Amino acid sequence: MEAVQEIEYTKPVKPSKLWMPKQVLITPAALQEPWGQQMYERVQALGLPVQELKSNRLTGLRGEDERETYRNAKSTLAIVTAPPSALKLQPIPPSADYQFHLAEGCPAHCQYCYLAGSLQGPPVIRAFANLPTILNNLVNYRKPNEVTTFEASCYTDPLGIEHLTGSLSETIRFFGEQENMHLRWVSKFDQVDGLLSVPHHGHTQPRISLNADFISRRMEGGTASLEARLAAIRKLAMPQLLGGGGYKVGLVIAPIMPIPDWEEQYTHLLDRLAQTLDFPCEFTFELISHRFTPGSKALLQEWYPNTSIDFDESTRSMKFNKFGGKKYVYTAATMQQLRSFFYSELNRRFPAAPILYWT
Ligand code: SF4
Fold first, then answer.
1. Looking at residue 98, what is its pLDDT?
2. How many structural domains is the chain composed of?
3. Of all atoms in ligand 1, which is nearest to the CA of residue 112?
4. Which of 183, 271, 294, 300 is the most exposed place for a label (fewest CB within 10 A)?
5. What CATH number does the domain containing 206 carry?
């Protein structure tokens, strides 16, 4: 009982609502995978309607317009097999050596969503049924005699769908058994209780994405509240002896935006973080400023016509990515102002916590 009391948060925090899709589709190929069967049983046990598809292609998700397509897709979970191309891993600097995917798509509704324009077709949430194949393939990418890091949240929020898939805890368990292979993932959700007792052996770094309360409330629909995310990071970082996960955690502050009272807003966030991690634990920071591309802006404005995100190109600097695509970032002067605020405030409050990068 003492352990439970130790982990109790300073004030009661309402956990976020679990996402429940309106429909679940499962392909014939996914049904043949034991992990697909496991997901099928999970969603059935939750009372969700499951439709067994006749073919491995997802069809019929398009609505009359982009918004209806968005609504249909974002309320659908499809259990599918990842294509063979998913087994050819791509590097993902500065976050990790390689990215791999447990799923594609995310049930949240962030008005700046990083996925807008990067995934093909309607934004349906696809969970991969061939998980053992995906995990066993990672071993082929392990570097000799040094730790190789793998990022699992480039195309999804793996914690937001964990109650439907179980794939994140299975992946943490898998990495716990591997030498020199570390897992990284990031989330805006808070349902971490099921991850606290998974034998991770220090090979997983969970990160929670945080932002100013104003941005979380206005622009991150369907995610856990800031207070719920702080409670989650506390549980993950708390030593196992005290009932926590004993993970070395990470804080991703993103996307940083110079909203009118940004200094006050971000100061409040860092104050709350210091109160949250008020016990000895290890953690790192990653700092990401807001950016957009012409394609992501067009799609996001269709999805969220009343968005409060500042998409004005005239106040931005244009950059080219390595494939020649345009992206809009803040001007050098704004970047410098934001960057020096975060570096000085973080170094002052958390001198032992490395800042892995600013971008
Ligand atoms: S949590 Fe991430 S992936 Fe999901 S909607 Fe928000 S930005 Fe997009």
1. 98
2. 1
3. 7
4. 271
5. 3.80.30.30
